[in-house]
Amino acid sequence: MKLGFWGAARQVTGSMYLLTLDGDYKVLIDCGLDFDKERNENEIPEFSRDKGFIFPFESTEINLVLLTHAHVDHSGNIPNLVKEGYEGQILCTQPTMELAGLLMADSARIHKIKLNGIHGRGKKINPKVLKRLTSDLYLESHVKETMERFVCIAYNRRFKVHENLYVTFYNTGHLLGAASIFVEARENGQWVKIGFSGDIGRKNYPLLKDPDNFPTVDYLVCESTYGNRNHQTQEPPEKVLEDVIKTSLVDIPGRLIIPSFSVGRTQSLLYTLNRLQFAKKFPGIRVFTDSPMAHKSSQIYEKFRSHLNEEAKEFYEDNDGLFDFESLTYVPDLEGSKAISNYYQPCIIISSSGMIHGGRIENHVQKNLENPYCTIFMIGFSAEGTAGHEIMNGSTEVVIKGRKLEVRARILKTDIFSGHADLRGLMAFVEQQNPAQLKRLFLVHGEEDVMEDFQKTLDWAGYKQTAVPAWGEEFELL
Ligand SMILES: [Zn+2]
Fold first, then answer.
1. Which CATH class, in words, describes the domain spanning 2-228+419-476?
2. Is residue 143 within 8 Å of 168, Cβ to Cβ?
3. 13 CA distance to ligand 1 middle (Å)
4. If you compute the radius of gyration of the chain from its CA atoms, what whole number of angstroms results?
5. How far is the CA of 163 from the centre of ligand 1 (A)?
6. What percent of the chain has pLDDT over 70?
């Protein structure tokens, strides 16, 4: 039995692990988009280099895909796998399937615009360059085909793939439908248990249940996003948001802009706003949610409310909904989005992307960054190279959509809406394993220096068997 690391190896994005069982049965765990780096040509296997690199293996040889959750750095490359000939099933929870479908359809829409741009250049493009530019741009038809391969399974049910392979999904509290996956595989009469953490959530997060306990395993693949730090904000989300609204909209009549990802983050934000609204904490202030995907995602959250925490379920029963309140407007189109600029009363604008890198948020930030009556409230991680990263790190000048702007707006940030466990949460997840029995602990999904720190912390806690796999590294599991 072999486990290969083909993504999120010494970096955060691109989650993709290949488990090869007896008889060459191949299971791919996650198949995400890699935003972190271009591969060094030498690292890419020969056959894959010839084809134009999407996957470092033949897609047709994969027998099964297991998907931990819908975020694109875990799911976003599945349509390419199907496009390249994958014919097997994709196992995940039902909310994950629906949220992933939404994200994939949005990617296909963006790909079509890109393709039209490439083909519309008018001059002949070198076929090799054309292939490189377009090989990973899947379209709606590929997403449709992908959706037909999903098989949904419930949490906590041992699912038999075949007599030598069982999988069980456990709630992680990271995103609606998100799971850690427990794999039991038999080789030479011996059962081997392998755990894939997926992304681990945190306790008391708006809407979501706390992470489930995870069973003991022989091998554990664990995410490391917050492997060297704890969340700073200790106050509850409602209090944090209430204070920001007070200082940016009530004390002075300003405008509050919140860059936020449409799937997951925006729902926790809207739910928290709805609770504040219910408690009459910001009467009359308009809230614009400027993202069509956020609306669809909210509907999926309401549809699967049985997956949410007790507080959210009760709130739904009492209010006949989770997100909609009178002063909330979902902005459906670009015209509506532009019209928000003409609204001069105090208001809250929630729009994506959360890193201010593409999406309608760029227009709002561009128009308001030099406005001292505006507050930009950063509620999530922003990768290096994005406007969000610069704004969060105190740059006084930022370029948005080609225009250099002075930062005169007030910038605030919080980690209270982060869907990731911090160091304490990660340790709590790992410490369910007995250090004397766990054969190997693989760290993935983290920045390299963070993973080194996490490895040291684990070492002090008695976990001496950690490995930080490099891209393409394979391990024999016995
Ligand atoms: Zn995630």
1. alpha beta
2. no
3. 9
4. 23
5. 31
6. 96
C-beta separation of 347 from 286 below 8 A: yes
Q: What is the pLDDT of residues 41-78, one digit of tens each?
A: 666 666 565 555 689 999 999 999 999 999 999 999 99
Q: Read out DSSP for 252-300? A: S--EEEEE--TTTHHHHHHHHHHHHHHTTSSTT-EEEEE-HHHHHHHHH
Q: How remote is the CA of residue 285 from the centroid of ligand 1, in Å? A: 31
Centre of ligand 1 to C-alpha 71, Å, is: 5
- What's the CA gap between 141 and 172, in Å, rounded? 31
Residue 450 in 3-state DSSP?
helix
CA distance 221 to 441: 6
CA dihedral of 325, 327, 328, 330, whole degrees rounded to 10: 130
- Distance from the CA of 69 to the center of ligand 1, in angstroms? 7
Distance from residue 130's CA to the centre of ligand 1 (Å) = 31
For the segment 429-471, what is each residue's pLDDT rounded down to a tens digit?
999 999 999 999 999 999 999 999 999 999 999 999 999 999 9
**CA 228 – CA 277 distance, rounded (Å):** 36
CATH 3.60.15.10-classified regions of the chain: 2-228+419-476
- Judge if the upstream peptide bond of residue 262 is cis by omega within 30 degrees of 0: no
Task: List, for residues 267-282, the tens digit of each pLDDT value.
Answer: 999 999 999 999 988 8
Residue 283 burial (C-beta neighbours within 10 Å; 0-12, 13-18, 19+): exposed
Distance 144 CA to ligand 1 centre (A): 23
Whole-number Å distance, alpha carbon 428 to ligand 1 midpoint, is: 18
The CA 252 to ligand 1 mean position distance, Å, reads 36
Determine contact, residues 333/265, Cβ cutoff 8 Å: no
Between CA 350 and CA 360 the distance in angstroms is: 10
Residue ranges matching CATH 3.40.50.10890 in the chain: 237-413
Quick one: angle between helices 448-460 and 423-430, nearest 10? 50
- For helices 237-245 and 265-278, the axis angle rounded to 10 degrees is 70
Q: How far is the CA of 174 from the centre of ligand 1 (A)?
A: 7
Give residue 52 CA to ligand 1 midpoint distance, Å: 27
Q: In angstroms, what is the span from residue 35 Cα to ligand 1's centroid?
A: 13
Does the domain spanning 237-413 belong to CATH 3.40.50.10890?
Answer: yes
Token pair in block for residue 133: 């530019």
